[in-house]
Amino acid sequence: MLYLRPIPANLEVGITRRQWLKVGLSGALALPALTSRARAGGTRTTPGFGKAKGLIMIDLFGGPSHIDIWDMKPDAPEQIRGEFRPIPTSVPGLEITEHLPRLAARAHQYAIIRSMSHGDSAHGSASHWMMTGRRPRALGEVGPTPEDFPSYGSVISHLRPASGAMPPFVALPLIISTSTNLVPGQDGGFLGQGMDPFRISAPASTYDFALPELQPDAAVTPHRLARRRRLRESLDTVKNVDIDTLYGRAFDLMAAPEVARAFQLDLESPLARDRYGRNAFGQSLLLARRLIEAGVSAVTVYWPERTEVEAFNNNGVIDKVPVAAWDTHGNHVGATANFPMLRDKNLPPLDLASAALLDDLTERGLLDQTLVVWTGEFGRSPRVNGDAGRDHYGNVFSLMMAGGGVRGGYVHGSSDRFGAYPDRDPVNPAQFAASLYHALGFDPHAEIRDNLNRPFRLAEADPIASLFA
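User: That's the sequence. What structure does it adopt?
Assistant: Structure tokens below.
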């Protein structure tokens, strides 16, 4: 069972936005130095190479049911096909769930991979696999370590440093965790904390992401801020790449008013905010569009909605705890029923906000330059269990990709007639990673190096050539 709860005080969460902006005053960070930086350039000319300049990764954490959303089996027995029915889309012959009507009307804009597989059914390690393209060092509900392979956003930050004041990698609106650990794959890993995302959140009642830390005190004029920067540099006798990166970004953020404006959703019209949905997910996707437009290279949006269920707490007492809304095991204690949760809570806001994002990126001429990915860490079991739910399932699942040279209206691979295993063209996380880097203009076989100068390829596979137009 997966719980989303406040981050335990004894867990290291990387660099938060407040730490970033106060790092010049703390003097307390001791971070491992990077001894080298390898630039990865594109050398391949297959279709779609390098079209994307930015990435929006939408993480449906908890495990969305492939068989109820993207890969329905209407001819399977009732205990497998479930309650939902497929509907036609804008692509002849392609059907998806009836509860995504807006995305069905835009199917010509995205591709579906129906044959993803890694066989891991643990939230923690499966998430690391899908957010990095690498098999985790340990399987199960394990926490992050400094030796982990870095997240996609961190690798992009490393290879494509921001040219202006905007942070290269932003994650919102929360940090995902299980009941005991932070989920690995969300940070800079062996690239160091200097490549961690700039993390932001917002009060659930307002969805206001404006950052007061980015509004300097009136007494701190640009001239005074520049003097502080020079003073810090003059006192810095021990060079540390991580700490220098964080200091530099903190000063850049404070000195650039355009950064604060990018986070101000109240600059959008009420109609625009309504189109995305007045909920945490909708407003997070709207902010992701604003950040990409402002020059951020990578944005990860974690599904923010949670539901309260009764479960045993750490003291062995049944209590109400928040659970990831996609973790739809059933009606028993500590779980949520699959079909009502998808129908009433998850799919409507996913449909509304995702359609608005596709429309906005298209109208602004940004879709071809922005790779958008919708994925969870795994799917759900084909057979409905005795509690009207579906359980963790990593043997086969689906994901969606749009923009950045990806073929719209395309379905890659298939599962068998029960949605239990890949039937055609199976895809593993390494191939997915290679395709992502390919779309962003990085040779998947280029190397990055850790703090011991050990080389690692970006991906351990080739891109899926048929995925690109």
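Residues 17-467 form a domain with the Alkaline Phosphatase, subunit A fold (CATH 3.40.720.10).
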